[in-house]
Design a protein that fits this description.
single chain; about 140 residues; Glutaredoxin; two-stranded antiparallel sheet; about 30% helix
């Protein structure tokens, strides 16, 4: 998977009980982040996603997709940390297989259904890194 590829569509169940379908957000920019509770760098960048989400940037969606952990583990983690941005289950790693990577965190930034950025690992300042990436893609 490379920049310029069509982002594979998916639908995931969210911790809050809703669902998220990537193609429903083709009119904007989507940050798709793959993470796990046991991954220190993953957990370290999540407050940056929360801050970016809380800014309410028009046409920006953020989805954190947990990599193959059970629902109870994810629910307890989200409740304890108080994150409000959309977080999804991928207990059998179905969506993760659409976006293969040997490492997490693994983040794909999609604009109008096309992969624009792929970031492997956690940047030092996740908020600034992702905000700058999103702003560079805005029309």
């Amino acid at each position: 998977m490379d920049k310029g590829d069509i982002a594979p569509d998916f639908t995931v169940e969210l911790v809050d009980g809703g669902t998220f379908t990537l193609s429903d957000h083709d009119d904007g920019i989507v940050i798709v982040n793959f993470w796990a509770t046991w991954c220190g760098p993953c957990v370290g960048e999540m407050p940056g996603f929360e801050e970016l989400y809380n800014e309410g940037i028009e046409k920006l969606s953020i989805i954190g997709i947990n990599c193959a952990e059970d629902r109870d583990t994810v629910d307890k983690f989200v409740s304890k940390k108080g994150f409000t941005f959309p977080i999804a289950y991928d207990t059998d790693y179905t969506v993760g297989n659409y976006y293969p990577s040997d490492y997490i965190p693994y983040t794909v930034i999609v604009k109008h259904g096309i992969i624009e950025e792929i970031i492997v690992g956690a940047p030092g300042d996740a908020y600034t890194e992702y905000k700058d990436a999103v702003e560079s893609l805005m029309d």
